[in-house]
Write a structure and sequence with these properties.
215 residues; alpha/beta; Glucose Oxidase, domain 1; two-stranded antiparallel ribbon; 24% strand; globular
């Protein structure tokens, strides 16, 4: 079992418009017999999943996302040769699919490995990552996958103000998982993926603990 999630902490890198997570000691063992902390964080903190409602007014919210949509066959696509702010086109996805010798299938959970998690802890992580193009999103949509995950803050290019990937996948019910990590530890192109969100009523997204299980 391979942990492919980021650790959540106050100093972690986040999408520029989001506040840093904060943790406050709430009870102490000396007083109540147990320790707890209160936390403040955006539901899109760290490794998380976007619900369709995040971008689509008529899309389902995170508490209505079927759990089985985030449990299933994961397929790892190696796009580590993509440069800083590099665009990943449909042809690149096809090439990675052929290299993996694993045709993408209906209900797959596709993880795009760019290797960008190596930039965690730097300013560039949240500003200069590579991203998918709309035609890449269209290609994944045609394959009827359940979800698309990336090891970057965003599947869209950092300068794509219209968020074409989000606005292509989410309206069709394809979930987006962002800020994955440690994808280089997955040793084979297919595995079992599990990444369940919290059941947050009316939420636009949720942090997840994502794992890859190699049989």
């Amino acid at each position: 079992m391979i942990d492919i999630s980021q650790e959540i902490h106050p100093g972690m890198p986040l999408f520029p418009v989001f506040p840093k997570p904060q943790f406050v000691q709430w009870t102490r063992r000396e007083t109540y017999g147990f320790e707890t902390e209160a936390m403040f964080l955006v539901t899109h903190t760290g490794t998380h999943v976007d619900a369709p409602f995040h971008f689509q007014p008529t899309g389902i919210k995170i508490d209505k996302v079927p759990p089985e949509q985030l449990i299933g066959r994961g397929v790892l696509l190696d796009l580590t040769k993509t440069e800083e702010k590099g665009a990943i086109a449909a042809s690149d996805i096809r090439d990675a699919e052929r290299a993996a010798r694993t045709p993408l299938g209906e209900r797959d959970i596709v993880l795009v490995r760019t290797g960008w998690d190596r930039m965690l802890g730097t300013e560039k992580y949240a500003t200069s990552y590579p991203g998918l193009t709309k035609d890449a999103a269209d290609f994944l949509l045609e394959r009827k996958v359940n979800a698309v995950g990336v090891d970057t803050p965003n599947p869209d290019l950092p300068d794509a103000a219209d968020f074409p990937v989000h606005n292509t996948l989410l309206p069709k019910g394809v979930l987006i998982v962002e800020n994955l990590a440690n994808l280089g530890s997955i040793s084979r192109p297919t595995f079992r993926f599990i990444g369940l969100p919290l059941k947050i009523r009316n939420g636009t997204g949720s942090p997840i603990r994502a794992v890859a299980i190699e049989d």
